[in-house]
Amino acid sequence: MKLIHAARFTGSTAFAAGIYSFVLIRPLFSHYGQASGQQTAAEESHIYWELGGWLLLLAVFAWMVFLVTMMHTYSPVHRISTNLQKGLLPISATLLIVSVLVGVARFRLSLPSLTGSTAADVALLPDLLNQIALTTLGAGLFMGGGLTAWICIDLVLLDKLPAKWMVPGAFAGILSLLSPLLLPNMLHLLAALVAYLAWCLVFGLRRALPPAYPDLN
Hints:
This protein is an all-alpha fold. The protein is built from eight helices and no strands. It has helices at 3-25, 29-32, 35-74, 80-108, 119-157, 163-177, 179-182, 187-204.
């Protein structure tokens, strides 16, 4: 896949997942703080959470495709930094995937299928899954954001791509890097999403990109 096509694919999936999460999923949090309505909210909204989970998994996959395509195109393969970046990418993606799956499981297990459990167990389990999901999400965004910012800065220092093209990606990565300190507040992720979409547009709206090795052309 060419980098321009990868940017278009990534931008489209990030936009869909972001809009779905902030418009349809995020308001549902208000119901879960109310003990009387918690079970009803989980029963009514678990389908929305599952669909949102699939969209988020697709967005994680698209993010991997974008970074892998960018590194394959512009990062010299013999460098230690490039190999470290390639190693951190699946680790970051795994943490994000685990967070999404635990988040979806949290609402599946809130359904009346837990009839054999005690009331204390049923009350404790959602909180435990919430903490696991938020912790792995923070870790995944920390590593993934740091990796994204590192790749952006690295390619600018290597003089492979113009700095103004990489600023939105670096900004999105730095904002995501702060997630362990700011979650469950999501406002910084909204700003990161806007910067991330702008970064995808920088590449996706172009017809051609600079060659990786102009001296060989």
